[in-house]
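Supplementary material to the annual report.
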Amino acid sequence: MSEHLTVPIEMALTWRYASGSAMERFAAGLRERRIAALRCDGCGRRYLPPRPLCGNCRLPLAEWVPVADEGALEAWTVMHLPILDGRTGEPREAPYGMGLIRLDGADTTVNHYLDERDPERLAIGMRVRAVWRGDLRGAMDDILHFEVLR
Amino acid sequence: MRRVAVVATGQTEHARSRDDLSQPELVRQAAGRALSDAGLEPDAVDAVVISNMELFEGRALPELWVGEGAFASGKPCLKVATGGTSGTSACIAGFHQVASGLFDVVLVVGFEKHSEGHTQTGMALTDPFWDRAVASGALGNFALSISQYMAERGVTEEHAARVAVKARRNAARNPHAHLRMPDITVEEVLASRILAHPVRMLDMCPQSDGACAIVVAGEDRAAGLCERPAWVKAAVTRHEQPYIGDIDRRLASMRTLREAARRAYELADIREPLGDFDVAEIYEPVSYSELAWYEALGFCEDGEAGRLIEAGRTEMEGDLPVNPSGGVLSTNPVGASGVIRVAEAALQVMGRGGERQVPGVETALATGYGVYAWADVVVLGSA
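Predicted assembly:
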């Protein structure tokens, strides 16, 4: 306990955000287990998440390209410190695996959970595949995590 | 453009928790110390820049609430909030204001009181559609990039531990530092708790309460306010695309820091960074990042950072002492941390670094690092 006066404050609040047209179309695809990226005409980069503009070329993005729900593990870690979930304010139970995944057909990587949490069994370059939830809602967490293909 | 110098600095004693001071009081202490250092009364300040990540404290409008602590009432006052780069970017904003001729004397104050709020919440409030569901904070984001960096550049856990040891031993000579550990060893770092593979507790920066201020003056005022002003030779800032997945091999590529350094070195005529700089204060939130920054800042070739730390070339007695203050690894009140980098680099140029002074500093480097990838590079010199 501090010897000084401190004021504790607790609040339960709600926010709501507009997704924008690119994300609306992307989210509709997720409901059918489809992933699509937007490709830049200038540099050819296929972007996930899809967005209105290529930041490098400053060009509007309009060409949708299909992306697989599997790809290569580009980076990984096993989290031992539980990190707060920014949707609920609750921490996720640790330890758990995380990775940056380059899905086949995309050029950017997706940051997501892994089903593997043993550092000895994780390596850059491993093939991984999305594990989808049963009741699809049209959001990124329709993918529960990625499983390592062995 | 007018020449600009840092003429004074002031900082608080940084610690895990400063319950003895409110946010405005903390800011007032750093600002007051900087003004005393310059021998200036508050009315002599033309404008104020404040640096703070207000989501961390959950307190809106710091420029209003703590502005008075920085003597800002009745003056132009701006806030800068760009994650870890907030402090260096606020300094750069102050440099620009004076260089433009709009103001003669500008006070820059950065502060954070992590103990009062939720740093993790502030970090997790990202894009609600994309990465909110998988937010892993600074720790997880770093750990992911570190796996790539280690694989590509041959850096080991022991190399990183050496960085962690250097920082905390240096901090023991800095009366303002938060983590002062004169006897820390590599073995102790390697035995500390794993937070996110391969990052251990002692590889990470602490969360600190603290504030730091600098006084910036134009060329016609600087000499009258400081015996040996730290002149701004270059100040460059670079931003990045929005998502961590946009950046290919982040720590290894680090295009923002590489491009900012390239431009700053061009402006300041730095050709051989390891030899041309006499001291560096770089923004290293995790031990591994310091190694990546050695390469991005051109202290060595890509893949040579491990050897640089092994050979002790960035220790206090090495060719280029890096972070005599103990760096971010020893003290991290985020909004203040970038201002601390600039203030510590300026103190070295002024020859006022006390026990942490590097002898004969003519040219000093300060950097900032924010969110996944933003970078600031500031070069200060004695002439």
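The mean pLDDT of chain B is 96.
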